[in-house]
Fold this sequence. Notes:
The structure is a homodimer. Chain A is α/β, with parallel strands linked by helices. The first copy, chain A, folds into 2 domains: about 5-10 and about 255-355, Aspartate Aminotransferase, domain 1 (Alpha-Beta Complex); about 15-255, Aspartate Aminotransferase, domain 2 (3-Layer(aba) Sandwich). Chain A is about 40% helix and about 15% strand. In chain A, the strands form 4 sheets. The first copy, chain A, has a 7-stranded mixed sheet with strand order 2-10-9-8-5-3-4. In chain A, strands 11-12-15-14 form a 4-stranded antiparallel sheet, covered by helices on one side. In chain A, a hairpin with an 8-residue loop joins strand 14 (about 320) and strand 15. The longest helix of chain A is centred in the last third of the chain and has 21 residues, at about 260-280. Chain A starts with a strand and ends with a helix. Chains A and B meet through helix 1, helix 3, helix 4 and helix 8 of A and helix 1, helix 3, helix 4 and helix 8 of B.
Amino acid sequence: MKIQLAPGPSELYFTVGDHLRQALREGIGSISHRSKTFEEISQIATAGLRQLLGVPPGFHFFFTSSATEVWERAIENLVEKTSFHYVNGAFSKRFFEISQQLHRQARAAEVPAGTAFLEASPIDAELIAITHNETSTGVAVPLPWIAQVREKNPASLIIVDAVSSLPYPQFDYSLLDSVFFSVQKGFGMPAGLGVWMVNDRCISKAEQLVSKGISIGSYHNLLTLLENSKKNQTPSTPNVLGIYLLSRVVQDLLNRGIDNIRRETDYKAALLYQTLQAHAQVQPFVQQKEWRSKTVVVANTGDRTHALAAYLEHHGFLAGDGYGALKKSQLRFANFPAHSKEQFERLADLISSFKAQ
Amino acid sequence: MKIQLAPGPSELYFTVGDHLRQALREGIGSISHRSKTFEEISQIATAGLRQLLGVPPGFHFFFTSSATEVWERAIENLVEKTSFHYVNGAFSKRFFEISQQLHRQARAAEVPAGTAFLEASPIDAELIAITHNETSTGVAVPLPWIAQVREKNPASLIIVDAVSSLPYPQFDYSLLDSVFFSVQKGFGMPAGLGVWMVNDRCISKAEQLVSKGISIGSYHNLLTLLENSKKNQTPSTPNVLGIYLLSRVVQDLLNRGIDNIRRETDYKAALLYQTLQAHAQVQPFVQQKEWRSKTVVVANTGDRTHALAAYLEHHGFLAGDGYGALKKSQLRFANFPAHSKEQFERLADLISSFKAQ
């Protein structure tokens, strides 16, 4: 089978097949989400995530159907009137648009694709939305810049979209109020599950909205999610099999060690960027080195896009298309824990030896 | 492995394991939801469902994360001010409450658990919500009564919650505007996917709300769902594996034949109700025969509940607990296509021979 390098859904973590077969043997597909067995699975998944990502107590973990759902729930539960969005690509923009669709006063600082943001300044907004890793362009905002946003905005809630970067980044969670991701990227799982972390400031904000008579949604509002999560349950029947797989994959990543995973991610990213920089026909899209994502590497491939993609596919690698308007002039390469060093060494060799007519 | 008779998540359809293994071999867990492969899978699933359930053209099929999500999306997209809910148990009540949580003027006709509704009358509401099969109590409303609700209310939109009855009922879809279900009940699949059918009156209603400046939600509003479904796509990354499994299970059910499935469901239900009626210590909960659900059979088991459940479990059957306050005095038995005639014959024998001290 070819190796999937699209940034999500991406390559499955190599243990997922075994875990799925084990789930079938254990009858996980038929268990009740109100059963002790489910509560245990859910508890193992969230405790494992907390350990793997280094999330302090005071953060709650909730399961959603996707990160897209979190965009909507975050606006519903954390914004009465004003949200502010740092926009540098299609996904940060979508979060901004969702706030508008929900009739909030949404504002944005927008910068060109391939770039990130200059010095942070004070912003008058209840919620500030930062996309840590813009999947469409391969830009990651630097962690010190996130700290600066917090420093200038102590009163705002800050939410970080880490969809295509976790488990790689070691966030300072004490600076953040909410972080979320979906499992089909860095966790190497089949799509259909999102994880939403929030602190008590978020809970208080949702309570405030309720006390003002504002609807915060129904089954997936923060207060209902919290009440259920205290029992390691969910408000409605969730993707039980997905939560089981997450509980297992997180254990696998813990066994491998988060430091190893981060080191290998750095190594693979450096190798791929060097290869692109040294190439005569293709280049890294993101110019500023400190803005280059470690987990989604985007290459300017111009009119060689199709030739390079076909060449890589012939050798067993499925590169991701460029996003949107750049579909035919860029390729994207996910660099997730599911992708091994050996695969990236082979990929780098292939790209180096590629020469279009 | 024991046979799961809880009404959802319930027993997996016997082909699900093979389909999951095939999905792993085909790399379905890594495909993009924007790929041709996904579009084909999605098209096979919805075309198969249309054929299996006898849904006429003019109805659109959308994927959600659960039926619970449909409750919320239906209120957001189909109700400006007023919804009306026929309530006869916990799940019909939850739909009613969600409308209240979303600040609509929700009204309800509530009848005691174990009963359904008398003659329908004209109702002044934009949306009328009917729960075809109350999973908590084992009551199914008769199809002629649904026709009566339509007759008295030609202008209202009528939505039918068929979560724990489809694919069994043959609805007259020309009388309905929307029907929905989730896959972990009658379709014998792992939880994490809902299917929402709507007609063009629903689409028009959502358009009207938008033209009045009312928010209908974001990524899963009806207009965005429709736009994406025309390409056999979804607005956000869905449970791809779930949609794949649905496409396969629906083909299996088509091969078996919906008439056979309905006949077998009738046979198994008749057998179980007769067994309960003939028993000295346990009885059917629902008294009126025309209100007895064919797909979720509820038994009054009183202080024999634990003894009967333990006896059945010892012999390989996991009965479902009673719902809510009736957890310790009732048992629920799902009668889905995943449950064979032979299993029900054995179950009936076991119940007949059960005698508590």
